[in-house]
Design a protein that fits this description.
alpha/beta; 4 helices; 4 strands; globular; Rossmann fold; 4-stranded parallel β-sheet
């Protein structure tokens, strides 16, 4: 399955250290999803190069729309801990579509 990883990135903060820590947590979760035999996808990883090119002033115009467009192509979502209105919106998308929402790596079906 293609599994979206949803969790905090900026958390309404201007602290780039926090952003890096959060992105590291998202990527670590993605690695665990990969080890379970799935394709992990993170909206931040898709949107950040575009945001960097456009400039951080366009962050809100780009991040959530790109993430939700990615969600349309995924089979399920893994929601990691932490406050995030964007991640909550991604989870709502999956719930509304009747697609699986996981909260722990161990909930994912193993394919290997």
């Amino acid at each position: 399955m293609w599994i979206m990883i949803a969790g905090p990135y900026r958390q309404n903060s201007d602290n780039p250290v926090l952003w890096e820590e959060n992105l590291s947590r998202l990527n670590a979760a993605a690695y665990q999803v990969f080890l379970r035999g799935h394709v992990p996808l993170i909206g931040v990883n898709l949107a950040l190069p575009i945001i960097i090119s456009a400039g951080m002033d366009d962050y809100h115009k780009i991040m959530l729309p790109i993430s939700l467009a990615l969600a349309e192509r995924c089979d399920a979502v893994l929601r990691i801990d932490g406050d995030s209105s964007g991640a909550d919106a991604e989870v709502r998308y999956f719930e509304e579509k009747g697609l699986p929402v996981y909260y722990e790596i161990d909930q994912l079906p193993a394919t290997k």
